[in-house]
Design a protein that fits this description.
5-stranded mixed sheet, membrane, alpha+beta, Immunoglobulin-like, single chain, plant defense, A-crystallin/Hsp20_dom, rod-shaped
Length: 221
């Protein structure tokens, strides 16, 4: 008749490591082998790691740890890998990867440049309108002076000045439209550059894998 097993409880050290794409639970299990371990996840999002291995004198070392899967993780994508030096890695991928700092900085720089160009375009348009109004007022004042001194000559000068003022305002309007169009094109180019920066900083190597069910398979490195 086989003797009953005597167990010695073991409390493994562990660490949770985070990055932009996943959480990784690192559990130190010296002396254990892959076949000694069992990794499970229940429907409530609790990760259960347990194991037992034989010791000398008929004793067995055992442990059992439970961890709550962090919010925002893909429970169906959890994977476990066991290193030969006795370190277990349980990878829990995020459903939505976080933004990298360089990408966020590039986005902020692109938005700031777009805002600066938009403000410059608005200021330029306002200045153009003020200059046009000032020119119109000066032309109107000149017409009144000419009419007071000589009605016939004033009428001719008023017609000539009016034509010149109209042509001047029309030319300035066209020039302002060209400048506004160029600024709009510049803003659009900055927006395209920002999108390109976002694409450059994105990491296309997302880790995806089908769910294995309640028991997480163990793999060797």
């Amino acid at each position: 008749m086989a003797a009953a097993r005597t167990y010695v409880d073991f409390v493994p050290s562990h660490e949770l490591v985070e990055d932009t794409r996943k959480h990784t639970l690192v559990v130190n299990l010296p002396g254990f082998k892959k076949e000694h371990l069992r990794v499970q996840i229940d429907k409530y999002g609790r990760l259960r790691i347990s194991g037992e291995r034989p010791l000398e004198g008929g004793q067995w070392s055992r442990f059992r740890k439970e961890f709550q899967v962090p919010e925002g993780c893909d429970a169906g994508g959890i994977r476990a890998r066991f290193e030969k030096d006795g370190v277990l890695h349980v990878t829990m991928p995020r459903l939505t990867p976080l933004e990298d700092e360089p990408k966020a900085a590039a986005d902020a720089a692109g938005d700031a440049e777009a805002g600066r160009l938009a403000a410059a375009a608005a200021a330029e348009e306002k200045k153009r309108q003020e200059e046009t109004e000032e020119d119109a007022r000066k032309c109107h004042a000149g017409d009144e002076d000419g009419h007071a001194s000589d009605e016939g000559e004033g009428a001719r000068q008023a017609a000539s000045a009016g034509g010149q003022a109209y042509g001047f305002a029309r030319d300035r309007s066209r020039s302002g439209m060209v400048r506004a169009l160029l600024l709009a094109v510049a803003v659009a180019l900055v927006g395209v550059a920002g999108l390109y920066a976002r694409y450059r900083w994105m990491d296309p190597s997302a880790e995806t894998a089908p769910a294995d069910g309640a028991i997480v398979g163990l793999f060797d490195y």
